[in-house]
Design goal:
The protein has 356 residues and is an alpha/beta fold. Among the domains are: 104 residues, Conserved hypothetical protein from pyrococcus furiosus pfu- 392566-001, ParB domain, CATH 3.90.1530; 135 residues, no CATH class. The protein is 49% helix and 11% strand. It contains 12 helices and 8 strands. Helix 6 packs across helix 7 and helix 6 packs across helix 8. InterPro entries: ParB/Sulfiredoxin_sf (IPR036086). This is ParB family chromosome partitioning protein.
C-alpha cells in the first residue's frame, strides 16, 4: 500500500475503467419528448395570443374609423335625422334609373356599401347611399326575399360632427355630378338652418360643403342659394331651372330689379316647369313677369242632342244618329244639306251682312 496521502491509498486510474453507457429508456424518451412538445406548444400559444391581441386591436381601430363592413337589417336603418341631398325623392324612387339599379342588385348583388352613423338616440341613421337603401327596400317589399332584407354598410365613428355628415352625404353625388345646382343649394340652405351646425350662412357653407369643386361651380351654387332663399316655396320645380337662367334671375334679384312679390305671385300660378322658367326669364330680362298658362289639351270627343238627333264630334268625324232613314233621302238633297252644314261652320265667327 502506498502512502501517497494520509489515508493510505492513491487516486483511482480512470484510464483503466470502461465508461458506463447511460442510454435513455422508453419512459425517459417519452418524458423528454413530452417536455419538448410542451415547450413548443407553449411558445406557439404565446405567439398566437400575441397575434390575436394585435388583430383585435387593429379590428377595433378599423371599426372605430368606420372601415369595417357589416350587414345591417333594413329595419334597423332610419332616414329621419339627416335631410336628403335630393329634391323630389318620390320621383327618384319611381324613376327608370331606380328600376335599373334594382335590376343590377338582383343580378349582381349590392356592390357598394352605404354609410351609417348612430344618432343621439342611438339609432342607426343613413348618411350616404339613399338610392341603394331605397332599391333594396323596394326589392324586399316586392319579393319578400330575405336576401334583400339587409344592407352592406360602413358605420361611421361617433365623433364626426354634424357638418361632416352633410359633407359626406353630398360627396359621392357631387363627384358623380349627379346633383343639380338647385339641389346643392338646398343642402347648403338646410345645413345653415340646422341648429346643430355652427355656421348660419348658406353662402359660407357652400365653400365648406363643396370645397373640392371649381370656384365657378361654387359661384353657380351660391346663385341658386339666392334664388331659393328669395322665392322659398313658390319655385315649384327648382331642378328644372337651367343653370344660366338661375344665375341671371339671381343676379336680377341681387340688383333689386323688379318686384319680388310680383315674381312670387306669378310663379305660384305657373302650372308647368316651362311656364315657371318663362316667368323667370321675363323677370331676368327686365319685363314684368307674367305666368303663361299651359295650353289646354283639345277635347278628344264630345256629344250633344238636337231634338231627337244625337251628334258625336271628334277629330275628323261628326256622327249623326237619329230615327230618320237617311238612305231614303235623295242624294242631291243630302248633298245640299251637307254643303249648308259646312258653309255654316266656315261662316262661324264672321260678321253677317245684317250686322254690318
Amino acid at each position: 500500500m502506498t502512502r501517497d496521502n494520509k489515508f493510505g491509498f492513491a487516486p483511482l486510474e480512470t484510464k483503466s475503467m470502461k465508461p458506463r453507457e447511460r442510454s435513455v429508456g422508453p419512459m425517459g424518451a417519452a418524458v423528454r419528448d413530452a417536455a419538448e412538445n410542451l415547450t413548443e406548444s407553449t411558445e406557439a400559444k404565446v405567439e398566437q395570443r400575441r397575434q390575436n391581441a394585435e388583430d383585435a386591436k387593429a379590428f377595433r381601430a378599423a371599426a372605430d374609423e368606420g372601415r369595417v363592413l357589416e350587414r345591417v337589417a333594413l329595419a334597423e336603418v332610419h332616414t329621419d335625422d339627416l335631410p336628403r341631398d335630393r329634391l323630389e325623392l318620390d320621383a327618384v324612387a319611381q324613376s327608370d334609373e331606380m328600376e335599373e339599379l334594382k335590376a343590377s342588385i338582383m343580378a349582381r348583388g349590392q356592390k357598394e356599401p352605404v354609410e351609417l352613423y348612430r344618432g343621439e338616440d342611438g339609432r342607426l341613421q343613413l348618411k350616404k347611399g339613399w338610392r341603394r337603401f331605397t332599391a333594396l327596400s323596394q326589392l324586399f317589399a316586392e319579393t319578400g326575399d330575405d336576401a334583400y332584407a339587409g344592407i352592406i354598410a360602413r358605420i361611421a365613428r361617433a365623433d364626426d360632427n354634424r357638418l361632416t355628415r352633410y359633407i359626406d352625404m353630398v360627396e359621392e353625388n357631387v363627384v358623380r355630378e349627379d346633383l343639380t345646382f338647385a339641389e346643392m343649394a338646398q343642402v347648403a340652405i338646410t345645413a345653415a338652418n340646422d341648429p346643430q351646425v355652427d355656421e348660419p350662412s348658406a353662402d359660407v357653407l357652400v365653400g365648406r360643403l363643396y370645397g373640392a369643386l371649381h370656384k365657378m361651380k361654387k359661384s353657380y351654387i351660391r346663385s341658386f342659394v339666392t334664388l331659393l332663399d328669395a322665392l322659398e316655396g313658390d319655385l315649384t320645380w327648382p331642378k328644372s331651372v337651367p343653370r344660366n337662367l338661375g344665375v341671371d334671375a339671381a343676379r336680377a334679384l341681387k340688383a333689386g330689379q323688379g318686384s319680388v312679390s310680383d315674381l312670387r305671385t306669378s310663379l305660384s300660378v305657373a302650372s308647368t316647369p316651362e311656364a315657371q322658367n318663362a316667368v323667370l326669364a321675363d323677370f331676368a330680362g327686365g319685363s314684368a313677369p307674367v305666368a303663361k298658362p299651359a295650353p289646354k289639351a283639345p277635347k278628344q270627343k264630345f256629344e250633344f242632342h238636337v231634338g231627337q238627333t244625337k251628334v258625336t264630334a271628334r277629330q275628323g268625324e261628326c256622327r249623326i244618329v237619329s230615327k230618320q232613314d237617311y238612305a231614303s233621302i235623295p242624294k242631291a238633297q243630302l248633298q245640299r244639306a251637307i254643303k249648308a252644314f259646312e258653309d255654316a261652320l266656315k261662316e262661324e265667327g264672321k260678321p253677317s251682312i245684317k250686322s254690318l
